[in-house]
Amino acid sequence: MDWHLLIAAGVKIVVFVFLLTLPLVAMAVWAERRVSAAIQDRVGPNRVGPMGLLQPVADGIKFLLKEDFTPAHVRKTFFWLAPTLVMVPALLTSAVLPFGTKLFGEPMVIADLDVGPLFIFAVASLTVYGIVLAGWSSNSKYPFLGGIRSSSQMISYEISLGLSVVPLIMLYGDLNLGHIVREQAHNGWTLLPLWGEGLSVRGLILAIPMFISFVVFTTAMFAETNRLPFDLPECETELVAGYHTEYSSMKFALFFLGEYAAMIVGSGLCVTLFLGGWSLPFGWLTPADTAVDVPFWQGLIHIGVFFAKVIAFILFFIVIRWTLPRFRYDQLMKLGWIYFFEIAVLNIILTAVLMWLLAPGSAA
Amino acid sequence: MSKIVQRPKLKWSERLYLPAIFGGMKVTLRHFFAILTRKKKVTMQYPEEKWDAHLPNHYRGAPTLVMDEHGRERCVACQLCEFICPPRAITIHPEEIASDEKWAKVEKRPKTFEIDMARCIYCGLCQEVCPEQAIFLRKDYVVVGHSREEMVHDKKRLYELGQTMDGLVHKWNELK
After folding, report:
1. Between chains, do B42 and A43 touch, taking CB under 8 Å as contact?
2. What ipTM goes with this model?
3. CA distances to A196, A315, A338, B4 from A175, in Å
4. Domains contained in chain A, number
5. What pLDDT, in 10s, does the model give residues A171-187?
6. N or C end of chain B: smaller count of CB under 10 Å?
7. Interstrand relation of B152-153 and B135-137 (parallel, antiparallel or unpaired)
8. Of A38, A43, A324, which has the smallest distance from its Cβ to B31's Cβ?
């Protein structure tokens, strides 16, 4: 038994998940409220602490002190199980995200799996169980409708989400997220191949299908995380509050935070796949090889760059939410099955054809 | 008669939906940055910033009692305000002014004068009806208390708020 590895993994879990991601969840809630306020010409929460930064703490205390009410008509076991089933997969998926290069000689990823994206898709789709169970066990019509909607929505978009990543995996020929990021650091980000081997006719032409992938992936990510314009499971105007109508106190908070955690991990995945993860543009401060040890300050910069990109992406999520109106349910299904599914499949074929035509050996 | 409204025919660029998203984001981001750079003033941060300096003179705040320039309480305890007060917030107990006192010719003054601010509706009828111009609605609007008893303004508090007001009624002056 290699104790060193276990301890290192434990420290990484505590630091990355509990000291970085969870506070980021809280800050995302705060940012959501402040940004939405600014967009709507309001002020937003600015009372608790400087600029209202401690508002999440106040919210947390409020959630803890509220009465945890369980209605008499619910199925208790599943009613209690559902909130955790939403929160846990969202945090589990963060295990394979490479959030930096190296610190103290340790690679900055909790589990360096060779099936990164597959693991994320497998675990992230477990979230739907939490929502369906919440809807069903609440034993009430609106949560039930919310749960039904959520399951069909997630199943529909899971397909285009998975298919949209296939061209990227074909391009890199690797399923390890760490390797994908390293490749991007050396040869240009997937969406921005402006240095290294990426800056060639082949690289620039292949960026076109990558951009299509990015659009499909991001949209599907919105649908997966139940964010507006695809938040039909909780659609206030039709379903009161959707699947969490019957929930109160900390159980409701878990749903709420689970949604934001999923959003952050989704942003992290998108940044890792398309925007170069921890790498700075033009190969600055990029270590030459996995074996090379990076200085402490560079390791910190890489972590900082990763989180800066994630935060920028979360802000994009937020602005989109307050810009677009909610889709109608049939439009959502049409978009998922008639457009995105086909676009994703055609994109795979397009990438394959382009890679065949522009193969480095063919000298075309 | 029904009228059929034709759906507009969209160009392919409009059907793509992406330009609409960027158009929308342009609007939201414009508002966002206008607020962020303080180009646009949103609202007053109430407890820190107040509108007090800009209150008009006819502002109807809490009703108060006023003294005249000789320090005489203007109220003669005629009880007209008590009768007209729609929510019956005012309670007056009059007393006679002793004949050896300076303002004996005024004859009456309020022994107690209470306004229940939990009932007051700031209508200003008391001020309108007062023949002595003794009761005025001033600019105090922060009337708070922890109990119903604290919300009742007694005579002392009413004069504290009202202070002195010159002129207006001269019929009790020495020269007259």
Report:
1. yes
2. 0.71
3. 21, 28, 28, 55
4. 1
5. 888 888 888 888 787 77
6. N
7. unpaired
8. A38
